[in-house]
Amino acid sequence: MSAKTKKAKPKVSKTEATKRVGKILPILKKQYPDAKTELEYGTPLQLLICTILSAQCTDVRVNEVSRELFKKYENAEDFANADLTGLELDIKSTGFFRNKAKNIKAACQVIIDKYAKKVPGTIHELTSLPGVGRKTANVILSNAFGIPAISCDTHVIRLSRRLALSDNDDPVKLEFDLAEIVPQKDWSVFSHTIILHGRRVCKARKPDCENCLISEFCPSANRPDFW
Ligand code: SF4
Questions:
Q1: Residues 163, 202: one domain?
Q2: What confidence tier does 20 reach under pLDDT thresholds 50, 70, 90?
Q3: Is residue 2 over pLDDT 50?
Q4: Looking at 78, 153, 186, 225, which residue is catalytic?
Q5: Known catalytic membership, residue 135
Q6: Residue 220 is part of a domain; what is its CATH number?
Q7: How many other C-beta atoms can be found within 10 angstroms of the C-beta atom of residue 58?
Q8: Among residues 20, 144, 149, 214, which is most buried (max CB within 10 A)?
Q9: Contacting residues for 109 by C-beta, under 8 A, at least 6 apart
């Protein structure tokens, strides 16, 4: 068996996972004191648009596109009334642009019709918008409204597995598992710091365990068979 061959990991113990969170979270908070989304936005609506654009796209590219986009479309009505083909062209470089343009227009129409032109501030209302799943909704809740929320993106999924915090890699099941082992007041800071740690240290192909400040508590440290 090669070193890279995956082994079945031991089943996650919720008690151990809770203890592990208690050890790693203070370290991550200290390491990434200003952790928040790297998407650039000024209003909840702009964050909603950026988050829809960020599917399968880097934050850097989204920020490049959105800087120009927000000069052209200033509010929900501008997006809802936008010419579909024109909007597709404006966001084309973020990928999946046809679907994203359709969802942006439709979501903005619902915001106008049902929510008095304001992005709603509950998970239930946000996930009722076209193109908005729990991951997007949680990004908006935590960053735009300051409401504790865990957003399970690819980094949170990968690091939760490596750190043995959950057996689930389905994002919704994982979110509920994490909500049980992370104190509610820390939900947002947990996901923001884990995302940064995943981007900078615990990368998908080659985690830098040698320079990882939480390696002491990580069951996958220097274990390529667990990555
Ligand atoms: S020790 Fe390695 S696998 Fe564990 S979190 Fe750090 S970089 Fe990732």
A1: yes
A2: very high
A3: no
A4: 153
A5: yes
A6: 1.10.1670.10
A7: 11
A8: 149
A9: 80
Judge whether 4 lies within some domain. no
Would you say residue 166 lies in a domain? yes
Supply angle C-alpha 137, 29, 218, rounded to 5: 95
- Between the CA of 210 and the centroid of ligand 1 the distance, in Å, is 8
Amino acid in the structure at residue 7? K
Domain range for 180? 14-36+149-226
Best substitution site from 163, 205, 225 to test ligand 1's pocket, by max atoms within 8 Å of Cβ?
Answer: 163
CB half-sphere exposure, 211, CA atoms < 13 A: 10
Interval between CA 163 and ligand 1 midpoint (Å): 7
* Inter-CA distances, 113 with 93, 106, 194, Å: 30, 11, 36
Q: How far is the CA of 214 from the centre of ligand 1 (A)?
A: 7
Q: Token digits for 63?
A: 């920020």
